[in-house]
Design goal:
about 550 residues; alpha/beta; Rossmann fold; UDP-N-acetylmuramoyl-L-alanine:D-glutamate ligase; 2 domains; ten-stranded mixed beta sheet; seven-stranded parallel beta sheet; about 40% helix; about 15% strand; elongated
Length: about 550
């Protein structure tokens, strides 16, 4: 699913009118219908419920007018507040406001339904205390936010700022029952960015139209959306595919089920035919990371897993890892980390493996270990995944080290590791995760998984994928090691195309964390709990 900028969305709407022959008025009517459908689906009947609909003068406000009319037709009591003078609105939005005003002038319906309309000439104060005859002034059951659309590029000010802040205060008040539904994007958020630019609505439900926008899916802005629904309003799929040049995508369930279907085991499969992974990981005192990654690799479906670790760590790892995991001892430094002298042995161990992963618990403070990692990656003969100390050993990223389609390099940094790889600050990375991940992926021809809330997957061709699964409970030691294992296990079963396996791995990792959090809660979640739910995550789509 493509993620669009505000300009791309305007272009798509225009092309829908020009090439698909669907008038703007029809798009507006359909958008309003989709919001009402979402309300009915989530909250049930609206008959007798009270709604406050906040509208701006533009297209988003026109959507709000449609929503108000359709709610009234279903028995709701509705107050529409237009934060503009009616005569200042134009075209299709003006027509939708006029339709609501006519209903207001006609009085309540035969079954007691009520609808009220007021514009700025009457509505300078708090929206639910207008001069309109609003019989439920303080605590409407629902507030529909149709104040601003996707084109906002500066902070909300004046009356707009006041109404946004008032809605948020009402929503967060003790014992408040009011639910806030945003049309397209919560007002006050920029649709083209990940960070707020000023006060903004904090919605319980957001219904965005045609395709998600960056502000719908990238945190922290995405947190203000509540539950997000992407609703089709008439734009044909072929038009989105051919006429929109967006290369940022939201990962969808269908991608995961398709990958799992394509990598199903043949009836005559054996352990060697479903992937043989070499995991170079662990050091004295850090064997847990290697054990977590190894078990996750097996749970993801790899047939064979061997952990190559430092000599003094091997005996400890044997007692921690699953009995199905094989181990090999490598030459070590005085501190118990893998030494540069282990290079030739590691190359021999890598021979005929399907995938190599390096990093969990490796320890990278010694120059000897750093030399080992750099030389091994340079001379790799298989796809390779780098995480944790495998990345720290390479920081800053050597410009001469590049991946390729035949021998892909997959890196899975968190923001701190990414900052070290790119010679940037952690703050700079967090402020532009999409741009920085894409830049490194394209420059060095590597696959980048920038971990965090809504992990970012960037490919060498410049395409970026936003992963929607995962939760704050996964902010726990070892979660990244489990991700390394899942990606390794999936990639070993179907190495090409590597990007598809990486996307599936990131999604299933987040989903396993979500399933674990549902059972255990976020606070008590451990990395090993994620591993225990990998099979549940896979079965959800494999069936």
């Amino acid at each position: 699913m493509k993620i669009l900028t505000s300009q791309q969305m305007r272009d798509i709407d225009r092309l829908t009118v020009e090439k698909a022959g669907i008038p703007y008025a029809t798009l507006m009517e359909t958008a309003g219908s989709r919001v009402v459908e979402a309300i009915l689906e989530r909250y049930g009947s609206v008959a007798g419920k009270t709604f406050l609909v906040i509208c701006g003068k533009g297209n988003n406000g026109g959507d709000g007018a449609v929503i108000a009319r359709l709610l009234w037709m279903r028995g709701a009591k509705v107050n529409v507040c237009l934060y503009s003078k009616l005569e200042d609105s134009k075209g299709d939005p003006r027509a939708k406001f006029e339709a609501v005003k006519e209903l207001t002038n006609a009085g309540q319906g035969p079954d007691g339904r009520e609808i009220f309309f007021s514009d700025e000439s009457k509505s300078y104060g708090p929206a639910w205390k207008t001069e309109a005859p609003f019989p439920y002034p303080n605590t409407p059951d629902f507030i529909v936010d149709a104040l601003f659309g996707t084109g906002l590029s500066r902070p909300a000010q004046g009356a707009f700022q006041q109404v946004i802040e008032q809605i948020n205060r009402l929503k967060s008040a003790p014992n408040s029952r009011t639910q806030v539904i945003a049309a397209d994007i919560p007002s006050g958020l920029p649709s083209d960015g990940s960070h707020p630019i000023g006060p903004h609505i904090k919605a319980d439900l957001t219904v965005t139209f045609t395709a998600p926008k960056l502000g719908n899916v990238l945190p922290p802005n995405s947190y203000a959306n509540g539950e997000l629904i992407v609703a089709a309003i008439g734009t044909p799929g072929w038009l989105l595919e051919k006429e929109c040049d967006s290369n940022i995508f939201l990962v969808e369930e269908i991608q995961i089920s398709d990958w799992l279907q394509a990598s199903r085991r043949a009836p005559d499969a054996h352990k060697g035919s479903v992937g043989d992974v070499l995991l170079i990981a662990g050091s004295r005192g850090k064997t847990g990371a290697a054990a977590l990654a190894a078990e996750a690799t097996l749970r993801a479906g790899a047939g064979l897993v061997t952990v190559a670790t430092s000599t003094s760590a091997q005996s400890l790892l044997v007692n921690q890892a699953r009995i199905e995991v094989m181990t090999e001892a490598l030459a070590e430094t005085a501190s118990g980390a893998i030494a540069a002298e282990a290079f030739e042995q590691a190359v021999q161990l890598a021979h005929n493996r399907t995938v190599i992963a390096i990093g969990p618990g490796l320890a990278s403070s010694e120059d000897s270990t750093r030399r080992f990692v750099l030389e091994f990656v340079r001379q790799r003969s298989r796809p390779i995944i780098l995480d944790a100390d495998g990345l720290n050993a390479l920081a800053p990223w050597p410009e001469s080290l590049r991946g390729s389609a035949e021998l892909p390099i997959i890196i899975t940094p968190h923001p701190g590791e990414m900052a070290r790889l790119t010679n940037k600050t952690n703050t700079e990375v967090v402020a532009d995760r999409v741009g920085i991940a894409r830049e490194l992926a394209m420059k060095q021809q590597v696959l980048v998984v920038l971990k965090g809330s809504r992990s970012i997957i960037a490919a060498p061709d410049g395409s970026v994928f936003v992963n929607p699964t995962g939760n704050a409970g996964m902010a726990t030691a070892g979660s990244g090691d489990v991700l390394t294992g899942i990606i390794s296990g999936l990639l070993a079963q179907r190495p090409q195309p590597a990007l598809a396996a990486v996307i599936a791995g990131v999604y299933l990792h987040g989903l396993a964390g979500d399933l674990a959090a549902h059972q255990l809660g976020q606070r008590s979640l451990l990395a090993s709990d994620i591993t225990q739910h990998i099979s549940d995550a896979i079965l959800k789509y494999e069936r």
